[in-house]
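Progress against Task 2.4 (sequence-to-structure conversion) is shown through the following example record, which the project officer requested during the mid-term review.
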Amino acid sequence: MPQIPPLKALRAFDALGRAGSVALAAAELGVTPGAISQQVTRLGELLAVQLVARSGRGLVLTELGRLYHAEIRRGFAALEGAQDVLDRAREDAAIRLSCLTSVLMKWIGPRIFDWQSQHPGARLSLTGSDIEPDLIRGEADFRIYYGGRIHPAHHAVLFTDHVVPACAPDLIAGHSLRDPADVLAFPLVSIVWNRRFAPGPEWSVWAERIGASAPESALSYSLSGSAIDAAVAGRGFVLAQISFIAEELRSGRLVVPFDIRLPLSEPYYLAWTEAALAKPDARALHRWLLATGRAQGIISAG
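Structure tokens generated for the chain above:
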């Protein structure tokens, strides 16, 4: 079997053949022009072939040099292609979970570390988007979505969430709230749902539930997570989804003076493809998501 020249010399010659200039080849490989010339000269000596000739102050490939370069270029292209395949396979091994933005921020994001601690070798990619990915085309492996969206045959209900009026403790400090209607005297933060979704209960619906009327909200957000953050900052009461405020309630950053809950009009779902379950740890994640959703449904319903 013929002895293969050193890879360093082959790389220098390949770069020279593609760049057409010693200086450009050196810049590409991050070495000096002298190093390129030295490696190319060494390669010619090893092969006992004149691969380059001087032209002015530079080097050009001879006819044999051009012939040899065309062949080794195919070899380097094959190596580069193999690396691309490996990189894609490594990326594809990651389980891609797509969620609605606020679901990622406030529900699954804080909880996913529990699953990761049980599966330290698993690779997981989380994406927050209100645009539904095409699971059949491989744009995601799992999708947490709201309402009756059209998804593959493989889907299951996660939970139906409820909303409850929550605020920062400082907002009501020094005030005596004796009746649920007292909540309506404070600034109210609203959430404007995307038109593609059946909206959650608004302040007017909650007020009607307690036999009162709600004033117009002075502040509204398109993202539930942002509305909750505003409430944490003391901007007012928010009708927050129970699943989204677990950490805020636990830490005391939000309080619920009156635990009067209203359900969302539709549940959250989990969708997936059969191909997704073939990935390492994907079935374990699938089971965990369903179990976490069931547990959340019980908590949200109170």
